[in-house]
Amino acid sequence: MILSVSRRTDIPAFYSDWFINRIREGFVLVKNPMNTKQVSKIILNPELIDCIVFWTKNPKPMINKLDNLKDYNYYFQFTLNSYDKTIEPSVPKKTYLINTFIELSNKIGKNKVIWRYDPIFLTEVFTKEYHFKWFEYLAKRLSSYTNKCVISFLDLYAKTERNLTSHTIIPFKENDIVEIAENLSTIAAKYNLIIETCSELVNLSDYNINHGKCIDDKIISDVIGEKIHIEKDSTQREECGCVKSIDIGAYNTCKHLCLYCYANFNTKMVEKNILLHDKKSPLLYGKLNGDEKINIRKMTSYRKNQGTLFSNK
Q1: Contact call for residues 152 and 120 (beta carbons, < 8 A)
Q2: In the chain, what percentage of residues exceed pLDDT 90?
Q3: CA–CA distance, 186 with 127 (Å, rounded to integer)
Q4: What InterPro entries does the entry give (predicted)?
Q5: Separation CA 162–CA 31 (nearest Å)
Q6: How many CB atoms lie within 10 A of CB 312?
Q7: Closest CA to 253 of 229, 273, 234
Q8: What is the pLDDT of residues 173-223, one digit of tens each?
Q9: Are the CB atoms for 43 and 90 separated by under 8 Å?
Q10: What is the assigned CATH class of domain 2-289?
Q11: Where exactly are the structural domains of the chain?
């Protein structure tokens, strides 16, 4: 089983104490986002969890807790963009994050830290030239501490478009994406970085940019030291290449409040849910009412000679 921590919120940045408490207690409860009366109980047994994939914009609060994960395999997807506080209002300063990136890489190894520069979008301020300048600056600073950079282009979902109303987004033309891809690829090659896309239909292979998998069985095989194959996650979009995983996060709980975020619906809901967080609770936020149906999630290790735990009520 692959554990995703988490596409829905930044657990390393804001809920690392809660996560370590869940590891110590050996399970976590996750409400179905589409039906909160359905709750999954996920057993956090290192014999069943092949790898943990962390998603974060600031893993600093997690770094001194990583010794608690000595029985687990894991790697980090670390988003480090060039946007300012008008777009990422609660993300720490870039110099702080660069130093954190370096610290994390030195602690766990550069193969376990993936740099994400996403999503890319254009405004009168954040022009193509702006991205080229700051992408190179970040690539130069980070290239000794990672092997790969993942990029994506902004999808304007209704809630994302609503959050970005204070900024005039310039729609991409086909030649814009080609120009951006060509320039970023040239910069990445200069610093010996592999560059891949996340959930993109556009084919950029002519610029040495291939479709990537954020939850990647090849990376996982490298991290665990055993070749495994995991099928594609059918619950994700068609263009998403990620393999199957179980996510333990919750929407509307990320305190970064980035305007492009698809996981936060509105600020008031985020503020409300944050107040309902208890680091000792099996749920990320809120409590059980007693009328929920709790199922133990079926979990199978992809490694040889590992076990399977079947779901029950």
Answers
A1: yes
A2: 87
A3: 18
A4: DUF1848
A5: 26
A6: 9
A7: 273
A8: 889 999 999 999 999 999 999 999 999 999 999 999 999 999 999 999 999
A9: no
A10: alpha beta
A11: 2-289
Place of tokens 């030649």: 175
Place of tokens 């990445």: 188
Query: pTM, whole model, 2 decimals?
Result: 0.95
pLDDT of 297 reads 94
